[in-house]
Amino acid sequence: MSERDDVLARLLSGELSAEEEPARSMLERSRELRSELASLRAAIDRVDAAAREEHEILEEISDLAPTPEEDRVMERARATFVTPRTARPIGSISLLPIGMAAAVLLAIGLWLGGIESPAAPEAPERAPRVLGSTIVLLAPLGPVADYDEFRWEFTLRRGQAFEVTLWDDETGQEITTSPRVFEPRWSPPVVFELPQRLRWEVHVLDSWGNPVSSGVGEASRAR
Amino acid sequence: MNEHAEGQRDRELVGQVLAGENAATQEFVERMRCVPRILAAKNARSGRPLSHDDLADLAQEVFSIVWRKLSEFRGEARIEAWVYPFCQLQYMNALRRNTRRPAPFEVDGEDAEPDAAGTAVRGEGPEGLDPLDATHVHAALERLSEAEKEVIRMKQFDDLTFDEIAARTGISVNTAKTRYYRGLVRLRDLLALRFSEEVA
Questions:
Q1: pLDDT digits (tens, 9 = 90+) for A211-220
Q2: What is the model's pTM?
Q3: How many domains is chain A built from?
Q4: Region B3-194: CATH code
Q5: Which residues of A fall within a CB distance of 8 Å from B57?
Q6: What are phi and psi of A147, to 5 degrees?
Q7: Which of A27, A73, A85, A177 should one mutate to test binding to chain B, selecting the residue with the greatest count of B CBs within 10 A?
Q8: Do A89 and A54 fall into the same domain?
Q9: What is the spatial distance between Cα A159 and Cα B131, in angstroms, rounded to a whole number?
């Protein structure tokens, strides 16, 4: 660093005052140096103001009680927080790519399951289908009284996690995606109203959020 | 517990989250309650230009960014302080979308890279923010190199001395001062690109 820059750095950091040498004589001689110092101090003032605001806001929020609005955000966040691959604001989903992806997954599932037509409400209970490795879906499958708990079988490796996505089987619209779960079971929050015909998919994710295995199942609930 | 000790404790927590530990993940998710709160506080200070729904959507965007960048968390500060700039930047981007004005320099809060200097915007507030709003400072900080940003944050936000900064980062005191000075020069220039500022 040049002597000029070194003096400026020391002035800005408070190590050197403008009345001390060599700062005093350099500032006296150079209008440009005085201007540079002033503009950098102005920038520091703005950074200090930003720092003060940050500290104030973090202090302000630290003792707040949760609100229903905040809890709703957290509920939605739990469905997307640990799945950046699928994270997107609920209500602003573009259905076309989701519909296409769902169609591809369904086609693969149908091919693997040997079923020639989409799920019918009165279809008999069918075996869970597997995509990829040996994940086995247990329940709910086929006609059920209600969707209580989603269960499957798979042994996670270190760093892996499950993610469950629910779809309305009639409209193809995604209902919700779970946060990462580490047990082979999950129940959706009661805030979500589940449809009569449901399709659910379990992904096994590695620590980077990449899917390594999947299972797809369908279920229907009597009205 | 001081900020540094909290940061180190949070570093352990994040490590557990990345390793897939359920209890740690649940604790981390609860700590992310700071995101909607920061956004709401920022929105209140800016005159509430965004609605509750806007803020809820924004919070989810921040959550996604936080998760993608979580492996970069080094525990220099606690999680809430680390998350804070993401909230600021996404808030700015949301305002920009709402006002449909192009920003002289755009930051997505993820992998912002220095671009060529943009057009100066004089005497007005892009995105509807006060020209002196702190959000612009955070946006400009994101345009610095990681090394410069780190030293400036430690010096100005955490109020550390250069000796302390050098000890924590493993660099020499002179290197810390150099990064600080060069970062400030760049920061000054970035802020001046957006607004005209009176200099004494």
A1: 667 788 888 8
A2: 0.59
A3: 2
A4: 1.10.1740.10
A5: 89, 91-92
A6: -95, 100
A7: A73
A8: no
A9: 45
